[in-house]
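Researcher: Go.
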Amino acid sequence: MTGFAGEDELYRYVGGIFETALADPELRPKLQNTGMVLRSLCTEPDCSLVIDLPGATVYKGSDPTAPDPSATMAMTTATANAYWQGKVNLPFAMAKRTVKVEGNVTRLVQLAPLSKRLFPVYVERLRADGRDDLVLS
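Model: Structure:
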């Protein structure tokens, strides 16, 4: 599996999918009502994002103004890429420790069904950028 080159790509693609979700009039209130601030912590290479759902803002992990997270999901960038294409079952990945979660696990698992609507949008964004190398079959 192929992952991102670094924090800029993680922000563009994974952060971008959250920005798309937070701009959606149906998804935005559902995401904001979780009250969660989620950190996506990735390896291979090391990079991260902080997604402030109540504040409807996505931060690069290196941004010192990012709020403290209430939950963290840790995985490789390749796993993050695969997840947003619908190729990773979150509960199974958590059980296998492919995805490690700290914080409110219940709320994180509740967010998973909302993300399914965004899988095609994510793949379209990769293709629009000519990133067929990241598209999984």
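Model: The mean pLDDT is 93.
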